[in-house]
Amino acid sequence: MENAIVTYSWILMSIFLLGMIIFGYIGMRKTKSSDDFATARSSYGPMTVALVIAAGISSGSTFMGMPGLAYNLGTPSLWYPLLYPIATVFGMLFVAKAIKRYGDEFGTRTIPEFLGDRFNSEFLRIVLTIISILLIFYVVSQFVAAATMFQTMMGVKYEVGLFITGIVLAIYVFMGGSHSDIMTDAVQGFLMVITAIVVLVCFLFSVGVDGNFGDMIQIIKERNPTGAFDQLFIPGDKTYGAFWLVALLFVAHLPFSVLPHLGNKFMAVRSNKEMKKLIMFCTIFATILPLMALGGMLGIAVIDPGANITPDQIIPVLFSEIFPPFVAAFFAVAVLSAVMSTSDGLIVSLTQLLANDLYRKTIVPRINISKEKAERNELLISRYSTFIVIIAGIMFAWSPPKFLSVFMWIGIGGIVSATAGPLIVGGLWKRATKKGAIFSLLAGTLTYWFVYLPFGLNFTNPFGAAGLGVLVGMLTMFVYTKLATPVVSEEKDERLTG
To answer: What domains lie within the chain, and their CATH numbers?
Structure first.
């Protein structure tokens, strides 16, 4: 049976990867300028973009990391998949329309550029560009998830899986940028939705367990007493130890939808009039995909407790256990979709930190260069920096972390702490000022790193540290704005905030 799974996995994975490369070629045909590469501006419908955003939100963390946490920690870890979609969509309500409207009117391409223009501050744009480099932690977690999937389902070495992942991503992102990213992610998002629904059904019908649903619940309680379904928290745990810690996890995700690789997707929607539909579809898809975490709970009851597997391997191992070889291989491809769907968006976003935020917005205005040559150079930087990002991702992923969900939040925490005040408060409040945005960014960032790093409080919980950073950043923005004199005209405010 194991050999059959490996064979089917290779066949289906080859078809999947070939399809991604074909979409890359189609994306290349659509990419005529650096703006096309960066945003695919106003090119796709709300359902397509919603699948892309939901897939980008979910990633390998949702499809492998969260089931791994559930398998290891039990029920208390389900707070994560329960709360983060609600917080993410809630935060999206505040800023999505403003980003889309401003992008269409003024041609902004990235979240750092949007914030810099919103507050007329080059300092904000450059600092947020530097902070956004922390997305490399996110990239690394996706590479680890992909390599783990190749290792578990296809029998190749972990390092070989890293190279396969990097080569495929390099080909189709290099060719088509955001167009390739969006087209591939829409297909991948659809596969992910199907897989999450199947996992939910398997959990509800206790597939692979000797007995019914009640028997499965009892087995989980026997094998993991502290993680049974009658336990809401883990005493002493710094992530799931109390309600206030879980609340910080919720707060940390409020700015999640405007991470650079997600916020730029709002610009790809055909019209601002379709933003309500986009948010509606995002709510549906983003609620379905985290149901994958239930696979980790099912794994507790199905997989032999003595099995020598890491937590992040639970989904491919579970699929191998409960499905026929061909079906297990198919769903393995769907899990790989989760990884690819986030990786490509992250790579495009990181290339734009170099091509757009540093070259186009910082260097070009200071040198004597024609518009046509600058545009050509920007597209070249966008494409070739793809290789830099991928090589860095492979190098950092060579030694995999224990928990993907925790590792990727080391970088995300720094970004959301920096952006919460300027984007969430500044996106809503007409009185928000440049100085308030700068103080907010600095306060949120310093709070996060002081709480998280060893030379500070050494909180060891990036979710909680990020939640505190977000709260401090938003509070700083609010207090400073209340005390300071408004400096932004009403006319400009209405353009920017809607």
So the answer is: 2-128+135-400 (1.20.1730.10)
